[in-house]
């Protein structure tokens, strides 16, 4: 598989403050990859490094196997064949839709320019607005023009920096799917950064979770959801519980919800405290076994009830249930996963 983008151990600081530490990842040709992380974690900085507006302190950046940044290489932005779609779109207000799209096509003949603009107008469903100016367009239409302009010169890679953060949420989910369809139809390779979990899960072939300048996991959306490999990723995704137990003499993890097998039991020692991630949807109530928890809160959330319970040792656990469970009732919580859990060293209480 052809790697369109490859980052090797990228490290970058602003004024002695490390913003990105040792980031390595690759995006294959035709893939849409998402970098997911909260505000301030370094997403835009990473895009600026890839586009060539900043130079890494350490590490290398390759675009289509060509090194564009390293200790002795710094290819200027205009020579990297990278298209960017910024949060504020930055459409030219004095140019109409067709002129905005053809802006980066000056080195093509006018016939080739017209052909590419017509193709993109059709692909992005902008034909009726060809002669309009940005102030005569809706937010969603502006978004499509900005994407068409970024795609026009057929860059090797398109970088999207939180393209929907200023759009209201109903339109956002519609646009996310439209943009993905447009990128696919033009066989674009894209790196898309966002703080929105739903946006990342909706579009990405690969997702990376970046927290405080560290890329903690880079994998498929399903693997990220099912097998988070870092407790901070579990906290950020907020779909699973971190439950702490103690390793027993046979290497199993003893927790208030049972004795569980660990996939990485060999790295732990007897009596060590270890955390595991138990997905909310992997929890069921066993009505015949001895109780191990008390229901604290129960809230209707449409399809089912969101429950928080307190386990026998005081830890709280979140789960869903089809029927309401009154606060104060004793229950037996049972994880129902058929594979071994990944244990994390306990770092935070
Ligand atoms: P994100 O896009 O994930 O919100 P940024 O990449 O914009 O995060 O910023 C990452 C960190 O770098 C933040 O702490 C931010 O304050 C800092 N930062 C960003 N740009 C600059 C700059 N030009 N000078 C100094 N610090 C900066
Ligand atoms: Mg940003």
Task: Summarize the model shown.
The chain is of the alpha+beta class.
CATH architecture type of the largest domain: 3-Layer(aba) Sandwich
Number of strands: 22
- Biggest sheet details: 6 strands, mixed
Give the count of structural domains.
2
CATH topology type of the largest domain: Rossmann fold
Task: Provide the gyration radius in Å.
Answer: 24 Å
Strand-pairing-aware structural class? alpha+beta
- Helical segment count: 8
Strand order of the largest sheet: 7-8-9-3-10-11
| Average pLDDT level | 92
Report on this structure.
The chain has helices at 43-51, 97-102, 110-123, 139-151, 169-185, 197-203, 221-226, 231-237, and strands at residues 3-14, 17-28, 32-36, 58-63, 66-70, 73-74, 82-85, 157-161, 190-194, 206-211, 214-219, 240-247, 253-255, 258-260, 273-279, 283-285, 293-300, 305-311, 316-321, 330-331, 333-335, 344-345. Helix content is 23%, strand content 34%. The protein folds into two domains: 3-226, 3-Layer(aba) Sandwich (Rossmann fold), CATH 3.40.50.300; 244-345, OB fold (Dihydrolipoamide Acetyltransferase, E2P) (Beta Barrel), CATH 2.40.50. It is of the alpha+beta class and 349 residues long. The longest helix is centred in the middle third of the chain and has 17 residues, at 169-185. It contains eight helices and 22 strands. It starts with a strand and ends with a strand. It binds adenosine-5'-diphosphate (ADP) and magnesium ion (MG). Residues 14, 19, 37, 39-45 line the site of adenosine-5'-diphosphate.
